[in-house]
Amino acid sequence: MSRSEKGALIVYDGDCVFCQNYVRFMRLRDAVGPVELLDARSGDPRVAAFQRAGYDLNEGMLFVFDDRVYHGDEAVNLLAILSSPSSLFGWLNRAILSSRLAARLIYPALKLGRRITLRLRGRPLIPADLDHSPERGW
Prior knowledge:
This protein has about 140 residues and is α+β, with helices and mostly antiparallel strands. It has helices at about 5, 15-25, 30, 45-50, 75-80, 90-95, 100-120; strands at about 10, 35-40, 60-65, 70. The chain has a 4-stranded mixed sheet.
């Protein structure tokens, strides 16, 4: 299967207005093919699987591409590198976050902005264990 047929997956916080807008404005299809957006609060079983694998979704979004999971600053760095600079957002995103060092330094501020926004909107953080399967006693 070619890269363009395989596509990518972005797992983000659907209650975060910054996260919603970020993934909405990403233009990746030319670089990676189909892109699936998955709200981490949706109840999709893949979210619980990522959590069981050790990914804390309150510490960062996920970008799954070429059979590898990128988390947090690594995710936004690769997204910036792969996104199209055809819009002002895309150009700024690429200019700033395509630097690995810049992404690593800026990402904590992005996480803080998310937490503040969630608090102001009265929304909780993503629960640490979304696996409510019968074998787990839920």
